Amino acid sequence: MTAYHVAQVNIGRFRAPLDSPIMEGFRTQLDPINALADGSPGFVWRLQTEDGNATAIRPYEGDDLMAINLSVWQSLEALQQFVYKSHHVETLRARQQWFELIEGPILALWWIPAGHIPTVAEARDRLRYLKDHGPTPHAFTFRTPFPAPDGQADDVEGLDAAFCDWASHDQPPPR
């Protein structure tokens, strides 16, 4: 059993309230994408309400259009497979239809002890830390990953995908 899992948070500000016609494409994909995540190898947990998603959770008080996705995975590789190599990538490519561009990192990754469930406050803190300090073992990105505390440096490999640009404001690692 792995001693550490990877937590991920990503945030986005909806272009309109979720029940707006322009959000229909996002709404119709939400349940299938969540089901895909739930059934993906390496998936552990995701933030959700009794509705089965997290669209009613507001990570920042006073911002009714800001959404959060928070999940835990057994490994960085399992998360990368889901994000970039499953049907999820099609929704990711269409992100700008439903979400405004916002300043700062919108995605942060960090290692947690297996069994720990991250909180929204913890996720906000990791995003803030990433913005203030750049990628470190405390908060990092797909492009600049760090190994788990019990791992080896060669256990992770930076993902130089075009999609890293929307989530990462760091530079690709030197080759």
Explain this structure to me?
The protein is an alpha+beta fold and 175 residues long. It has a single domain (4-167), classed as Alpha-Beta Plaits. It is 30% helix and 18% strand. It is built from six helices and five strands; from the N terminus they run βαββαααββαα. The chain has helices at residues 24-38, 76-85, 88-93, 95-98, 120-133, 164-167; strands at residues 4-14, 43-46, 66-73, 99-100, 107-113. Strands 1, 2, 3, 4 and 5 form a five-stranded antiparallel sheet that branches. The longest helix has 15 residues, at 24-38. The relative contact order is 0.20. Mean pLDDT is 87; it is low at 160-175.
Short note summarizing the structure:
This protein is α+β, with helices and mostly antiparallel strands and 175 residues long. The chain has helices at residues 24-38, 76-85, 88-93, 95-98, 120-133, 164-167; strands spanning 4-14, 43-46, 66-73, 99-100, 107-113.
User: What is the C-alpha radius of gyration, as a whole number of Å?
Assistant: 15 Å
CATH topology: Alpha-Beta Plaits
The CA-CA distance between the termini, in Å, is 32 Å
**Helix-residue proportion:** 25-40%
Output the helix-strand order.
EHEEHHHEEHH
Tally of individual helices: 6
Low-confidence stretches: 160-175
**In percent terms, what proportion of residues is strand?**
15-25%
**Total count of domains:** 1
Shape: globular
Report the count of strand segments: 5
The description of the largest β-sheet is:
5 strands, antiparallel
Q: Can you give the mean pLDDT?
A: 87
- Name of the level-1 CATH class: Alpha Beta
User: What CATH architecture label applies?
Assistant: 2-Layer Sandwich
Which structural category do the helix and sheet elements fall into?
alpha+beta
